[in-house]
From TrEMBL:
It comes from Pseudodesulfovibrio cashew. Keywords: Transferase. It comes from the Bacteria. This is Phosphotransferase. Residues 126-296 form the Aminoglycoside phosphotransferase domain. Coiled coil: none annotated. GO terms for molecular function: transferase activity.
Length: 360
């Protein structure tokens, strides 16, 4: 609930409409009983009568109510309100928006004026992209510390995933987005591949999508696994220091999700780098992959993660096999990644120790 005070409304009107804006009254729609403001909160509109430049005006102030239909977080609701602010006036007969703003931690109404784009400012961290270490290893400079780094990643994920959350609807949402989001599986199928695409025909895409529906319904039984996650844990989102420390960038797709997504995301990149010189996971990258999995499973005791990982390998496989994002892959590399995507869905439990059989 938001505690909205008369002074907050007055300040907002002056910031949004000018110093001569004057509040006349505020309350429930249909009556300006100011006591009604005590109940102002999510989903309950507030009628405001005010004056600007001698002209009396009325407006309705509202905050979108959170729900389980993809609006659990304030940034979900902000996106809806931004859309309405930007587009409503362009529709004939639609109510015209007069202002867009947010309520800060002090229940102050802060206007957003004529938004065009949003930005974020982050701290500057020292380090280099971790994928450069993978390039170094592929070039023949494999160090004992590289295996320990993989273990460090696993230990970090184990700590992150140790924070659990009881909200089945958030887990359903994460799995639903995994398959149906524009930046996840179906979006990649549509946009990251030309159609037709001879190396993976439309008929194979159709079969893949149908098989994923079975997995969506399977994973509905795993909502108890909802955990804190990174959401995009891959070599381009890791800053390494060369001294064993690392930092991460670009947390994505929500605070809560399935730990298997993070685990699969890094694992498939060890595979990718290996496939450039072998037709399988082998050599230094296999050593790192095994250390990574062994450490994670030992730290968490979470063997159940192997029951849910397959669709996340499909997602990440679609990313790294994409001819748009990775145009220089040899055909053999792309082909084995496609085999992985198809075959991994046929096992109820991911056989991490024998991943090479999925690429046959």
């Amino acid at each position: 609930m938001i505690e909205l005070k008369i002074e907050s409304i007055k300040r907002y009107l002056q910031r949004a409409f000018g110093d001569d804006a004057r509040l006349i009254g505020a309350g429930d729609i249909g009556n300006l009983d100011e006591q009604g403001m005590k109940g102002f909160g999510y989903g309950k509109p507030l009628l405001i009568r005010f004056e600007v430049g001698g002209e009396e005006r009325e407006a309705v102030l509202s905050v979108m109510k959170g729900d389980k239909y993809g609006h659990q977080f304030y940034w979900d609701r902000a996106a809806i309100l931004m859309f309405q602010y930007e587009t409503s006036a362009r529709m004939e007969r639609h109510v015209r928006p007069l202002g867009l703003g947010y309520v800060n931690g002090s229940d102050t109404l802060v206007p957003v004026e004529d938004p065009k784009e949003f930005f974020i400012v982050n701290e500057k961290l020292e380090g280099y992209d971790y994928f450069l270490d993978l390039d170094r290893i592929r070039g023949g400079d494999f160090r004992e510390t590289d295996v320990e780094c993989a273990r460090d990643f696993a230990r970090w994920l184990a700590r992150i995933h140790g924070t659990k959350h009881d909200d089945p609807h958030l887990y359903y949402r994460r799995i639903r987005n995994l398959i149906g989001s524009s930046e996840c599986i179906l979006g990649l199928v549509d946009e990251a591949y030309p159609h037709p695409y001879p190396p993976f025909t439309d008929e194979r895409f159709v079969a893949l999508e149908k098989r994923l529906i079975d997995w969506r319904w399977k994973l509905k039984g795993y909502a108890h696994r909802l955990s804190a996650v990174h959401g995009d844990f891959h070599p381009w989102n890791i800053l390494a220091t060369g001294t064993g420390d690392f930092s991460v960038l670009d947390r994505s797709r929500g605070e809560w999700g399935e730990p298997g997504g993070d685990l699969a995301t890094m694992a498939v990149n060890y595979l990718l780098w290996s496939l450039y010189d072998h037709d399988r996971l082998a050599g230094p990258f296999e050593a790192m992959y095994r250390a990574y999995f062994e450490e994670y499973l030992e730290r968490t005791g979470d063997n159940e993660v192997l029951e849910v990982m397959a669709p996340f390998f499909v997602f990440r496989g679609l990313v790294i096999a994409s001819p748009e994002w990775y145009p220089d892959h040899p055909a053999s590399v792309r082909g084995r990644l496609f085999n992985l995507m198809v075959n991994v869905l046929e096992d109820e439990v991911f056989d991490w120790e024998h991943i090479n059989r999925y690429m046959e």
